[in-house]
Amino acid sequence: MKGIERIMALGQRIWYDNISRDLMADGGLRALVAQGVRGVTTNPTIFEKAIGEGTHYDGDIRALKAQGMAPEAMVRELMMGDVRRAADILRPVFDASLGVDGYVSIEVAPSEAQDVQATVAEAQALWTALARPNIMVKIPATEAGYQAMREVLARGINVNATLIFSLQSYERVAAAYSAALEERLARGLSIDRMASVASVFISRVDTVVDALLQERLNTAPAAEAKRLRGLLGRAGIANAQRIYQRYKDLFRGKDFARLRARGARPQWPLWASTSSKNPAYPATWYIDRLIAPDTINTVPPQTFQAILTHRPKALLEAEIAQAPAVLDGLRREGIDLPQILDTLLEEGIASFQKSYQALAARLAQK
Predict the structure, then answer these.
(1) Residue 141 has what pLDDT?
(2) What does each C-alpha distance from 48 to 20, 31, 37, 167, 258 come to in angstroms?
(3) Separation of alpha carbons 290 and 318, rounded Å
(4) Residue % of the chain over a pLDDT of 70
(5) CA–CA separation, 86 vs 88, rounded Å?
(6) What is the dihedral of CA 239, 243, 244, 250, to 10 degrees?
(7) Percent of the chain with pLDDT over 90
(8) Model confidence at 1, in pLDDT bands (50, 70, 90)?
(9) Is the pTM of this model over 0.90?
(10) Could you report how far apart the first and last alpha carbons of the chain are, in Å?
(11) Exposure letters 102-124 (e unless 16+ CB within 10 A, then b)
(12) CA geometry: angle 237, 203, 152, nearest 5 deg
């Protein structure tokens, strides 16, 4: 049994955090699906790399230019083309799983992240244009995003709630999902095929926290240094552990029981940003520690290759009792994790917007 099959046996799905025209043209995505990949996630940065480099998209770019399309509109059109192809490749997985697996995500423009109606309108436009049941529209977990998610889900559009960092943000995403299901029931609409995931970002948290811990390690005495080293690479995992515990409280308990009885599916946590950005950590650092039932891990290409021969262990629940000690340790060091998580959300939106702008500029050059 391969590593990815063992992970699935432990209750977790593996999605692939990458997309490109050549990946689909040469049969690469079909091969990944055959190996066990059950979904695909994308973001503006991934598309910037895929479209901006090489020549695979040049024919489409020339055709769109001939139609008089501006670079900004080309970006969206090229993204949709890739997502549509990927969704078709994953459609057999979607059909065989009765809609549990086989999804491909596409993000609304980050520039609309603080505008409820603009986000809703774009999500509807993407859903209509793509015309595939196994699409998820990614909406950032901003103040406007929570309301937009509820409205979009209530329309029957699948949502990947993205850029979740804090427990409070996760709770508001989960509340938006349940409220949308309730609204659909009140309107006499079905809820048994609605799908949504909550994308919680992991390694970005450790990149920031570890840097702060390292500053303290540089001047710490030996006894203190040992304790500080024990916190390295743990903040993102501890944050995910408490979010997973909240997931179980919300979706396995009595509050969701009525919706579940009407066929509703829980909104699974999806662990995003799970590559080991610190070279001191093994490639599978965010694999074993995040394996638990009813979860998804979306992994980039390098991490995917590492798990193929990995012998996984489901450590999330086994180590969940360690989370309070890690979070208390960070507080004692004066590390303001809530503030860090809020900043990471702002930086994530800004980063994706920068990728959109950079890609439009590169297309203009082409």
Answers:
(1) 96
(2) 10, 24, 23, 30, 43
(3) 10
(4) 100
(5) 5
(6) 170
(7) 78
(8) low
(9) yes
(10) 46
(11) bbbbbbbbbebbebbebbbebbe
(12) 90
Q: Which residues are catalytic?
A: 138
Q: Which residues pair with 197 in a beta bridge?
A: 160, 268
Give the whole-angstrom CA distance, residue 242 versus residue 222. Answer: 30
Is 75 within 8 Å of 356 (Cβ atoms)?
yes
Beta bridge partners of 298: 15
Map out the domains of the chain with their CATH numbers: 3-365 (3.20.20.70)
Give the HSE-up count for residue 164: Cα atoms under 13 Å, Cβ half-sphere. 27
What gap in Å lies between CA 20 and CA 27, rounded to an integer? 11
Distance CA 237, CA 149 (A): 26
d(CA 266, CA 256): 8
Q: How many other CB atoms are there within 10 angstroms of residue 63's CB atom?
A: 12
Buried b / exposed e across 19-33, counting CB within 10 Å, b at 16+? bbbebbeeebbeebb
For 89-145, how does the pLDDT look when each residue is reduced to its tens digit (9 = 90+)?
Answer: 999 999 999 999 999 999 998 888 889 999 999 999 999 999 999 999 999 999 999
Q: What is the pLDDT of residues 320-352, one digit of tens each?
A: 999 999 999 999 999 999 999 999 999 999 998
Distance CA 358, CA 349 (A): 14
